[in-house]
Amino acid sequence: MAKQVLETAKKEKKEKNIETVSRSAAGQIVLVRILAIVIVDVIVAMLFDFVGPRADAARATAFHMSVLPVLKIVFPALLVVALAILGVTLAKKKDTSAWWITPVMLAAIALYLTVTAVFFDKFWVYPPIFYVMTVIVSLLFAVYYIYTILLYRK
After folding, report:
1. Whose C-alpha in 94, 97, 120, 123 is 20 to 30 A from the C-alpha of 27?
2. What is the DSSP letter of 151?
3. Cβ neighbours around 105 below 10 Å, total
4. What is the pLDDT of residues 40-71, one digit of tens each?
5. What's this model's pTM, rounded to 2 decimal places?
6. Numbers of helices and strands, H then E, in the chain
7. How far apart are CA 137 and CA 6, in angstroms?
8. What is d(CA 64, CA 3) in angstroms, rounded to the nearest whole number?
9. Nearest to 43 by CA among 31, 54, 51
10. Angle at Cα 106 formed by Cα 12 and Cα 151, nearest 5°?
């Protein structure tokens, strides 16, 4: 019975073109994924503190006039590109579970940056909404990508 299950699993992996990695490699992949999320969070939080409600008024005004409109164009464009990459990998049925950064993660980070840029004025007026969103998004990503380590088998 156990041999049958093992043979079936090997056959399924071969048919679906699933890449197998060792447990330590899976741990490294998950670590890189979590570090990517932490880096994005830190960058966004530092930017928010740099031009947020407690910042110098001239610096905040300059950011709103010159940088924010560009970010409102760049981040949605990045989201479209990330969704296109996700669509291509799904259409080709590529196994991306062993990639350092998956297309799903790219799309999620791009969505996070887009929401931050588009709703920056609302976050600027009431900062706790932004910080709560940052914590919730980060925790959800971390739990999901820590859980993915359990899915890798050698």
Report:
1. 94
2. G
3. 20
4. 878 777 777 676 666 677 777 777 788 888 88
5. 0.68
6. 7, 0
7. 37
8. 64
9. 51
10. 35
